[in-house]
């Protein structure tokens, strides 16, 4: 029972254990080295390809934003044009109605003037037929229709003005 023997045996066993661990760890370390090389290649590829891809995505998103803004402006301007056209049509209708009423008034005036000039003069004070104040001359069918349309338009304009 020599202590030196036990010390030598312990050192031998530690050396054998370390050798066994190293032999078992060598394939694992080789696989780890291969994985590190693969990761390095992947990182190189990513660092080379990713920035241009990100820039392209960023540029595409900016272009899409610009196109969206352009489309929005186009829609707004189209709606304004439609509103202006609608207003122009309304004013043209009103002007046509005013012209129609003026033309009717002129024709009635011309007919009355023609009758006045073609009929002999009669003492007008004695032959005038007077209508009672509550009797009004009847409107023609066309005049009634025009009055209805004017009333509808004023009601619609009042409604639009109230409801914005």
What does this structure look like?
The chain is rod-shaped. The N and C termini lie far apart (113 Å). It has helices at 3-118, 124-127, 141-163. The protein has 164 residues and is mainly α. It has three helices and no strands.
Features:
single chain, 164 residues, mainly alpha, 87% helix, rod-shaped
Question: What is the gist of this entry?
Answer:
By secondary structure, the chain is an all-alpha fold. It has helices spanning 3-118, 124-127, 141-163. The radius of gyration is 52 Å and the shape is rod-shaped.
Q: What's the layout of helices and strands?
A:
Layout: H1 3-118, H2 124-127, H3 141-163
Number of strands: 0
The whole-angstrom Rg is: 52 Å
User: Which stretches are low in confidence, meaning pLDDT under 50 for 5 or more residues running?
Assistant: none
> How much strand content do the residues show?
under 5%
Structural class: mainly alpha
Helix content: over 70%
SSE string, helices as H and strands as E: HHH
> The biggest beta sheet, please?
none
Distance between the termini: 113 Å
